[in-house]
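Q: My labmate handed me this sequence with no annotations at all. I'd like to see what the chain might look like in three dimensions before we decide whether it's worth expressing. Could you predict it?
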Amino acid sequence: MNAVNRMRAAINGAPHDYPPSIWIATAVVCRNFAIPQVEWSHDADLLADSLIRFSREIGCDGIYVTRDNLVTHEALGGAIDWPPDDEPMLKKPVLTEISDWHTLDVPQPETAAGMQTVLQAARLASQNAGDEFYVMANIDCGPFTTAANLLGVQRFLGELAGENRQAVHGLLEFCTELVIAYGKAMQRTGVRGIQMGEASASLINPDHFAAFALPYIRRAAEALADNRGDLWLHICGNSEHLLHQLRDLPIQVLEIDAQVPLRRAGQSLGNRMALKGNIDTLLLQNENPQQIYERTQKMIRTSDNPRRLIVSAGCGVPRQTPLENLQAACRACSDTLLS
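A: Here is what I predict for the chain of 339 residues:
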């Protein structure tokens, strides 16, 4: 069974030999291969080649093509600070007032700053990896988190309790169209799956999630569910209070952070989708390889449904994580045969 078949079997709950693994590895790739992250972020060939090399070195099943969570911000003309060897930082939000959303236009992803680099990297990774790896790509943030980034997270969350609901929904409508456009462009690169992230969604209560996040996530997912590949959703932080609302979304994989027990997540979702996660990133960075090996095996064996588990960190792998720890996690997967 090759890596692509193993990943697809895990996504669909079909029989396979052992749990596959895939990692969000931007920072650790740059550190371990001595690549300045600012250079890596602007060079599609370097980005794709280093991710393939990384996946081969640690022995995982998938390649996760991404840059950072400011790609759509940059595509809309937002200013970014680029440290030479760290994550880029937002200088200021694109919008001054929420009502200004109507001045924005959905960019053409193939020519937009940021987007075009990630699209080309995804295309190269898919072509060069072939069937050696399951290649997926991040399409940046989902509609809710994109809206929060464009206005500023604190201001946007404050607007949810305000009186200007029409502008809030107008911005969310725009962001949904932006996510769909980028997602369709990414699907055309040949990747086997795409993922959007809703980091800001874990900060809100279930009622606000039902009103302001879920309808737009659903609309984006439905527009992208055209058999061009699998759909993945990531929610950072503690999303346990939201899981019951995700059960019927047309997505195949949910990535959950370390704060959410795998067994509880599987039960809340009714095992209707595969789970990706959820090794604690700090432990992954700071423990030794034997500890990571044992922790990974225990996580697999105690999960609610190991056949629908894709092993990874709960979020992006920290920069200082030793490759030996990632190799240990991947080895734990291949040593844990599924009945």
